[in-house]
Design goal:
Elements lengths: L1 E4 L4 H13 L4 E4 L8 H5 L10 E3 L5 E3 L1 H9 L9 H30 L7 H22 L12 H10 L13 H11 L10
Parallel strand pairs: 1-2
Antiparallel strand pairs: 1-3, 3-4
Helix pairs in contact: 1-3, 1-6, 4-5, 4-6, 5-7
Length: 198
């Protein structure tokens, strides 16, 4: 397998984390999150949106979008439950992550750390406010449950961990989120865990 990757991307990290936990060997090709000038040339027809991560399977077929990739990789493993209701709950949280969490937390982190021309501070603060709403929702849930779905570690945890654990790099204050802190520690102790820098 070949992963088109960026070391700093939380979306790419989700895929790398699950691959590590599954013990799957793969190759990486690094792309910049800031300079996208070669995306069409590199990704071509592999991914119509020219985004990373993009995973190319051994037979040449490609899968784009981080949560689609981890769903594919987790099928028939303990990271994706067989129960129909729990699978629907996994999807619920994957959609939450991409619609209510990542567009705010990941975007602010990118603007603050990697964007060559970030927007005005007022726009950053507005987007940061949306990130806090997502963190508040996550905190409420994790105050009642040890993991995101089914009281066990799954790809829902991987998806939300990707950017939550680096949220402070975007200026988010996580000190008031006790349940999130406990959950971050539990995820970091999961077998096969690797840091985003690995």
């Amino acid at each position: 397998m070949l992963l088109y990757n960026s070391q700093v991307s939380g979306n790419c990290y989700k895929v790398r984390l699950l691959l590590a936990q599954l013990g799957i060997d793969y190759e990486r090709r690094e792309l910049s999150v800031a300079d996208r000038s070669n995306r069409q040339e590199v990704l071509g027809e592999l991914n119509p949106a020219w985004r990373i991560p993009t995973l190319v399977l051994d037979d040449g077929r490609a899968i784009a979008e981080s949560n689609a990739i981890i769903w594919y990789l987790a099928t028939d493993t303990p990271y994706l439950p067989e129960d129909r209701y729990e699978r629907a709950k996994i999807l619920q949280w994957l959609f939450f992550e991409q619609y209510s969490h990542e567009p705010y937390i990941a975007t602010v982190r990118f603007w603050v750390n990697y964007a060559p021309d970030p927007p005005p501070q007022s726009e950053i603060e507005s987007r940061r406010a949306g990130g806090y709403l997502a963190l508040d929702a996550l905190e409420r849930h994790l105050a009642l449950e040890p993991f995101i779905v089914g009281r066990r570690y799954s790809i829902a945890d991987i998806a939300l961990y990707g950017y939550t654990h680096v949220a402070e790099e975007g200026g988010f204050d996580l000190s008031r989120y006790a349940a999130i802190h406990r959950w971050l520690d539990r995820v970091a102790r999961a077998p096969g865990h690797v840091p985003i820098t690995a």
